[in-house]
């Protein structure tokens, strides 16, 4: 007499364990790489792609920019490479990045996470209550301490278009390297090379 017994498929536990280990290792590698990139650059995300042409001709639309976290944002005339150097300061010292004086920074308008970040050049620093002149010849009063910013291709400051001066804590990173979309040219600012040299010497 025959009975219709269903056989339970055998499960190779060794295969399951190996698969789980492979997944765990892959996740660990990804997380480790992300942590390493953040530790080295100090910025997150460490890489951004430009969507507009406001920084042309130095940074074209679609260029990939590597950021570093601005540590110790300084605003005095003796600003060093560890902080954000403005266009005004760079013009006095000869400090240039991406074809002009001063640093290019990525910031969140009004410090809002819901606003798309902007990659523009830090032009000069103002203090709360300070009166400064816009590109159109008008004057504005700074509502708080911060940077006045501008796209290289724009004829106006960002603050002349309704944005507030950029507080240091709104800055998410400083542009260090760039790969131009049209030519594939790698842009490496001089101060970045100096930093790499110093890193190797320190090691």
What report would you give on this structure?
There is one protein chain. By secondary structure, the chain is of the alpha+beta class. It folds into 2 domains: 29 residues; 156 residues, no CATH class. The chain has 3 helices and 11 strands, in the order H-E-E-H-E-E-E-E-E-E-E-E-E-H. The strands form 3 sheets. Strands 1, 2, 5, 6, 9, 10 and 11 form a 7-stranded antiparallel beta sheet that branches. A two-stranded antiparallel sheet has the order 3-4. The protein has a two-stranded antiparallel sheet with strand order 7-8. The relative contact order is 0.15. The C terminus is likely disordered.
Structural topology:
Layout: H1 13-41, E1 47-49, E2 64-68, H2 87-93, E3 96-97, E4 100-101, E5 104-107, E6 118-126, E7 131-133, E8 139-141, E9 146-150, E10 171-179, E11 186-187, H3 190-202
How would you classify the helix and strand content by structural class?
Answer: alpha+beta
Total of DSSP H or I helical runs spanning 4+ residues: 3
Q: Please give the share of residues in helix.
A: 10-25%
Largest sheet geometry = 7 strands, antiparallel
Low-confidence stretches: 30-43, 77-82, 183-203
Q: What is the overall pLDDT average?
A: 74
Number of domains: 2
- How many strand segments? 11
Output the radius of gyration.
24 Å
Order of helices and strands: HEEHEEEEEEEEEH
- Beta-strand level of the residues, as a percent range? 15-25%
- Could you give the distance between the termini? 81 Å
Q: Which outline best applies?
A: elongated
Brief synopsis:
The protein has helices spanning 13-41, 87-93, 190-202, and strands spanning 47-49, 64-68, 96-97, 100-101, 104-107, 118-126, 131-133, 139-141, 146-150, 171-179, 186-187. With 203 residues, the protein is of the alpha+beta class.
């Amino acid at each position: 007499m025959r009975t219709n017994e269903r056989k339970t498929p055998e499960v190779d536990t060794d295969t399951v364990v190996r698969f789980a280990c492979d997944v765990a290792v892959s996740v660990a590698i990804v997380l480790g790489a992300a942590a390493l990139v953040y530790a080295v650059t100090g910025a997150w995300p460490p890489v951004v792609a430009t969507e507009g042409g406001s920084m042309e001709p130095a940074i074209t639309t679609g260029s990939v920019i590597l950021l570093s976290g601005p540590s110790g944002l300084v605003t005095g005339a003796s600003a060093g490479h560890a902080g954000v150097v403005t266009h005004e300061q760079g013009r006095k010292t000869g400090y240039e990045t991406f074809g002009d004086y001063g640093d290019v920074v990525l910031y969140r308008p009004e410090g809002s996470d819901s606003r798309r970040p902007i990659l523009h050049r830090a032009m000069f620093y103002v203090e709360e209550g300070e009166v400064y002149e816009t590109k159109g010849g008008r004057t504005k009063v700074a509502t708080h301490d911060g940077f006045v910013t501008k796209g290289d291709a724009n004829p106006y400051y960002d603050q002349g278009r309704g944005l507030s001066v950029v507080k240091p804590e709104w800055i998410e990173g400083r542009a260090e390297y760039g790969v131009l979309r049209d030519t594939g040219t790698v842009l490496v600012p001089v101060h970045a090379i100096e930093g790499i040299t110093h890193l190797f010497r320190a090691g």
